[in-house]
Amino acid sequence: xxxxxxxxxxxxxxxxxxxxxxxxxxxxxxxxxxxxxxxxxxxxxxxxxxxxxxxxxxxxxxxxxxxxxxxxxxxxxxxxxxxxxxxxxxxxxxxxxxxxxxxxxxxxxxxxxxxxxxxxxxxxxxxxxxxxxxxxxxxxxxxxxxxxxxxxxxxxxxxxxxxxxxxxxxx
Length: 171
Known about the structure:
This protein is an all-beta fold.
């Protein structure tokens, strides 16, 4: 995204590499990293997935779902240093401070839907389980908890841009 730096030269397009049992994004990226499940791109079905993320530093990172394109998706975003919005007035996503956020990007405009004070621990694996229903209802679980860290109702999620595939069955 526009807040990333370092994605030029040898790092053009990011620096993700397949390490066999995990994907690694090394020191080329300097702003924010969002993991996208490309196999689910454009899906209007109910689905659930689990991903584990290890943060080497305190930069922003997160998980993207209901991805249609770079301008339309939902993201669970967490940060220890707010690099993604650092110095932006107004903030790109409307989410400020430290902790975790649910952000909807629709037609390139970001809206902060929900905030939570949960913070990741640097240098530790964290597991995120996302359950996303076609109705827009979403639950996010962290580190095997049986209690959802974040719950969203379908009415909280706006429809995506006109002409794009929708992630809600009701508009």
